[in-house]
Design a protein that fits this description.
CATH class: Alpha Beta
CATH topology: Alpha-Beta Plaits
Order of helices and strands: HEHHEEHHE
Number of domains: 1
Shape: globular
Strand order of the largest sheet: 2-3-1-4
């Protein structure tokens, strides 16, 4: 009886830890959009680092499309929860769309 109870407790703990680990799995946020002037955009982008840090995003890459140098591609890593929260913020969408020379951006969240 004790072995069965201990096994149940251990199984419950392992399931709980597994669920917590999955909730903390990293997500990747990919943002791409055209800009009129990369250097000017980069200065404004760099100025927002503290806000992104507070939101739990870690910058991985800031790149330019090899065939279209005025298209920026930014990659962040975050927990899935933080990624969804960040990209769903209307202020974020407004800032990204304003920075885009086309007025819109492609924003994706990817998980493993």
């Amino acid at each position: 009886m004790r072995k069965a109870a201990l096994a149940t407790v251990l199984a419950t703990i392992l399931m709980t830890l597994g669920a917590a680990a999955r909730a903390a799995d990293p997500a990747i946020v990919i943002v791409s959009h055209p800009v009129a002037d990369f250097a000017a955009w980069k200065k404004r982008f760099d100025a927002g680092k503290e806000m992104r840090d507070k939101a739990g995003l870690t910058q991985r890459y800031v790149m330019r499309d090899a065939d279209k140098p005025n298209v920026v591609i930014v990659v962040f890593e975050a927990s899935l929860e933080n990624a969804k929260k960040f990209v769903s913020d209307p202020g974020f969408r407004e800032r990204v769309n304003k920075a885009s020379s086309s007025g819109s951006a492609e924003i994706k969240i990817a998980i493993q």
